[in-house]
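Usage

Read records sequentially. Each one opens with the input sequence:
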Amino acid sequence: MTVNWMKSVIFCLLMAVSSSSAQTITGGASYYARSFEGRKTANGEKFSNYDMTCASRKLPFHTFLKITNLKNNLTTIVRVNDRGPYAKQRVVDLSEQAARIIGIYKRGITRVKMEIIKPPSDADSLKKAMNENDIVDADGKKMVSNGYMLSIWRTRDLPHALLLINQLHELEYIQNFYVLKKMNDHRPLYHILIINIASTQEAEKLKDYWERKGFLRVKILEKA
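and closes with the structure output:
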């Protein structure tokens, strides 16, 4: 009885520790079909396969997740804006762009790790300080581009853009990444940029590189 009681206590303690620090979930991942493009998500947004979003059964809307493909260790950061998936073998459904970036597009269900991450604490103050056409780094320092610029992704969500450029800095340590604010339909749109590109030829090479990485709407911007 004593041994069994001790085992029960140890089990309960382990469960308490894992649940209190449970910021990580593992399971199967798939992605949205293109037929979902433009449909309303569970939080009222229009779904876009060009965004970095996902469906989760229980995580709160606007939760940010670092998704890692456990087969190849490729990662990206997505935001919860929909409910699902409801198949037992899956824990998340990704937009097509997110699926391409981590290498699961057209590969069926893939095992992934999901880590809950917090948005940058200074994102709100930076949003208020940024004017249209401002270019800033991850710390909010204003920059000027002296060459062509490459927009590799854009979003309405500044915290999401900041999280992604921090992750890109970790992965792509040769290049620096910045955020450009432009107005679109009277609302801010935040571009993740590579700046100071010397020529159109270099810009085209970088465009091809990032498209091969899975980014679907890479765009060359003219010199500032």
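Summary fields computed downstream for this record:
- The radius of gyration is 20 Å.
- The first helix runs from residue 2 to 20.
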